[in-house]
Design the sequence.
């Protein structure tokens, strides 16, 4: 059976277990809230028109700017929401 490590992955992204817990929990709460907004938008199309896409954009930016090395996989990608 594989040995479970609570510190290997957090260390690989240059975080302690506590830092990783806080960051991952924040991401999860944001995704759940945005998901609920998307479900409401499906029923009430006039509500939460940009909430899901805004959450994705913000989380992506947070993830790549805190990544070890700080480089996005798509360096020339335009993540602006105007357009």
Sequence:
């Amino acid at each position: 059976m594989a040995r479970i490590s609570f510190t290997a992955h957090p260390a690989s992204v240059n975080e302690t277990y506590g830092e990783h817990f806080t960051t991952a929990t924040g991401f999860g709460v944001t995704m759940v809230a945005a998901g609920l907004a998307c479900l409401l938008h499906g029923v009430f199309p006039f509500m939460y028109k940009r909430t899901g896409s805004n959450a994705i954009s913000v989380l992506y930016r947070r993830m790549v700017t805190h990544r070890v090395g700080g480089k996005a996989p798509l360096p020339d990608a335009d993540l602006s929401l105007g357009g």
